[in-house]
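Re: your question about CoB--CoM heterodisulfide reductase iron-sulfur subunit A family protein

S., sorry for the slow reply, the queue was backed up all week. Below is exactly what I fed in.
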Amino acid sequence: MTSETKAPAGGSIVVVGGGISGLTTAIEAAEVGYEVYLLEKNSYLGGRVAQLNQYFPKLCPPTCGLEINFRRIKDNPRIKVLTLAEVEKVEGTPGNYTVSVRINPRFVNEKCTCCGACAEACGTELSDDYNFGMNTRKGAYLPFEMAFPARFVLSPQIIGTDDARKAKEACKYDAIDLEMKPKTFDLQAGAIVWATGWEPYDAKKIDNLGFGQYDNIITNMMMERLAAPNGPTKGKIVRPSDDAEPKSVAFVQCAGSRDENHLPYCSYICCMASLKQATYVRERYPDAEIHIFYIDLRAPGQRYEKFYKTIKEDAKVHFIKGKVAEVMEDPASKAVTVVAENAVTGEKMRQTVDLVVLATGMQPTAANAKLPADLKYNADGFIINDFEQGGMFAAGCANKPADVVSSNQNATGMALKAIQTLARK
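Result:
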């Protein structure tokens, strides 16, 4: 390990996760004088926020907030960013941790200018997980236009193939290194903040809602990518089955949340996400009818309540209090019929629409893969902060369901907790 990556024991903070919570934690700690190592398993920073079309409270694109944070990181020599990084093991006690890190190969070095010649040379098309598999991308790719670091990536799937060779030959800057290997090393840290974020709940597990069975049923995060200008359809919201403009859309709330068979808790963000996405549809298609099926609509805070009231005044948006029991598809038209009991009138209703959006819940990343450290979790996989012991803390959605604003506030607090650990050392 080089001297550049060594830190004095107890003198640095390791932040695991480069989403909005991790970025905030790292920046807040570094800007008051602490050395921070920011580790991200993806090839880019930004996390889930980078995949959104717009986010609250200003309904601005993610570039709005991320660009400022990326600039602050670039300008701060105290922050060392390590992408494609995974923590393999954590040993030690508060004030003196050894963090074993593995860096997976990008196969592209710092000489990359993002010219795109490598992608043009590749013929292979791979499923694009950034867009939830709704399109494909080349084996050499830039994750998204504003990716930080601004550098292409070669998929491990093309290493050893003609495509990899062609990509290397196409690069005029000697930026492609097909011999890159994984690297492992240790970091010494006084405190660790786990900002490992969340994953959309797997909608295929919800048998009665038809995701994966019917083409025109998508998730709320898929809707974000459809609406995003850099998404698979360049911002055009269309039916996956035929790329037609939907004349009617149903939003199904609590898809997997508040359900003992799936996620027993409220995921906090889903109601507002669907109301926001209703505006996406209405802005693009003024005549489209929107149907929102809900158990309870939760708009936490005055600003969100005001937004909800504005949506309710739209005559084209219909709210139905009732849990969706089943969905059915017309094989000919690919239209989807949503079946629910209206809890207000008691009638069983059937609403046929062109597109269904499932408001799938927020599941902590650690629920499916426990982290390699001595951490406590609740029954749902969220990390429980032990402030008495200190040393390691969970920020943002690793700790509880939260929106961007709440995640930023929480991350600032966890940066302070990490600093207090070092100060006591």
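The first strand starts at residue 12 and ends at 16. The chain has three domains: 8-104+182-199+363-424, 117-170, 202-360.

Happy to talk it through on Thursday.
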